[in-house]
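Batch manifest line 282
LIGAND: zinc ion
JOB: complex structure
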Amino acid sequence: MSSYSFNGRTLVFATMHQKERILKTDFLNQLGITLVVANAFDSDAFGTFSGEIERTQTPLETARLKCEAVLAQTQADMVMASEGTFGAHPHYAFLPGNNELLLIVDKRLQTEFVTSIWSTATNFDARYVSSNSELMAFAKQIGFPEHALILKSSETHALEISKGICTKAELLNVFAQLQARYGKVYAETDMRALYNPKRQAVIREAGKALIELMASTCPNCQFPGFAITEYVPGLPCAQCQQPTRAIREHIRTCKNCKHQSAMLFPNGKFTEDPMYCNYCNP
Ligand SMILES: [Zn+2]
Ligand SMILES: [Zn+2]
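JOB STATUS: finished
ARTIFACT:
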C-alpha cells in the first residue's frame, strides 16, 4: 500500500440534501474512505435551483467556495462539494441534460480531484398549467410522486413558492390556492437530490467516475488522480490512412512528478470511418 492511500481517511461532504447517502457505500468499499456530512452547512447560501438566490460563479468555483468554507470552519483535511446544473445537453441540444460536478479538496496531499459528467437521464422540466388535468398530466410525465414538484406563482420573481411537493393531495391543494390568486401556476421539477431519484442516479455515476480517478495512480510515484490531460486527435482513416479528427490517444499527466503516459487507441478503435475523413468525404 502506498503512502498516498486513502484507506481510513474521513471525507467531509458539504451538502444538506442527503447526497452523502448516495455516495457513502462506494467511497467506503472502493477507497476505504468514511464519508460524513458537514454539520450545519447551508449550501443554499451559495445559490439554489429554484432561483431565490442567483448563482454568480461557475459550478467549479461554487464547489471550491463550499469546500473552502468547510475547511475554514472545521478540522477536516479532505472536503467534497457537489454542483448540479440543468439545461440543454451540450451534445444533444434538443434534449434536457443534467450535469453533476464533484470536487474534492485534499489538504493533506495538496491537490484537488474533480469530475463532471453530463446525462440525458433527467426529468428536468417546467411549464405553466391552468387546470387540474394539465397539472396532473405534467405530474405524470415527470414521474410524480417519486419525483417531487415545485409550484410557483410565476416563472421568475415568484411571490409564492411551494417546494418538495410529493403527495397528490398537497399538489392539488397548493395548486388550487395559487390558481385562485394568480390564475395560472408555474410547475417545475424539484431537482434537489433527495426529491429526485433520477438525479441521485447521475450523482452516483459522477461519484463512481471520481472514485475511479482517485484510484488511478501515477506509475512512477503512485500519486493518486492520474488523470487524462490531453486528447490527441489523428485516428487514421480506414480507407486512405490519413489522420482524422477522431481521438488517437489519451495522455495522462501526474500532478506530483509530471510523469506522462500515453494510451493509444483508447476507445478500442484503430481506424475511423471514411465518412468522417476530410480527404475521402470533404
Ligand atoms: Zn480517408
Ligand atoms: Zn508521479
